[in-house]
Amino acid sequence: MDYRRANRTYLYMILSTLGLVLAMSLWYANGGPTVSILANNILSEGVVLIPALAAVFYSGEKLSVMIPFHKIRIKTVLLVILYVIMLFPMVTFVNAVSMIFVENTVSAISGDVLKMPMWVMILSIGILGPLVEEIVFRGVILQSYQRTGRIVGSILLSSVLFGMMHMNFNQFAYGAVMGIMLALLYEATGTITASFLAHATFNTIEVVMMYANNSALDEAATMAEDYIGASGLDTIYYVYLFVAAAIFTVGAILILRLIATIEGRIEFLESIPGRSRFGLELITLPLIIAMVISISYMYLYTLL
Question: N or C terminus: fewer CB in 10 A for the chain?
Fold first, then answer.
């Protein structure tokens, strides 16, 4: 499948997502019962997955080519989990910076999440979401873009689109960054098995942390704020986060290189910086329309 069809497919995903939002709004406006967060997640992932799979089938491509699931070594599995842990400070830093300007969307829905059993949310957010998103973004979209030979451009653009698909500025910020790291993990292994494992591990940890009792941490933070002062605490917090993010991200990159070595793809991984052509050819009118719609929706979302 070429990049033009991938861009049209992304537009269909955005339109399908907005259609779902409109349908849900009309449902509630007409007195419909509350839809659980589990059902909402399934519907949200469905309107993303269906256009992607339809595009692959229509193009005549083999699913195994567009969605490369292959075995990875046990060592790689363990290193992928460590890789995810090393990425948490960076994601936390980006999330914290975005919260200066917009609301933390995940925190806003945590009440709805906690109403469900933890195992249900792990299946929904920790397994289903990552599976669909890896199939679509590190699978269909990234594979389509990379056929142009623009590896760096493909990684960056597919990651930006991954962030935008979350339809809010908070998740867009750290979603795009996480998208880059997941795409690099795919390049290091040649399979979305690894990126799915990483994505699922990350989301599952987040779900478990939502259910964890953080009262002791909240009390400690309050005491520190009283002692230092709100502005001082903020400054120290961001400095610590930045330093931790920088150190741990370097560690993550070293782990990525080790993974690529184990999987026999270190030469390819090292060649990526030399394939830095972005190529405006990747950006087509349907993609521009999709991005404008997405950004407009995210802006309106912040005003509500």
Answer: C
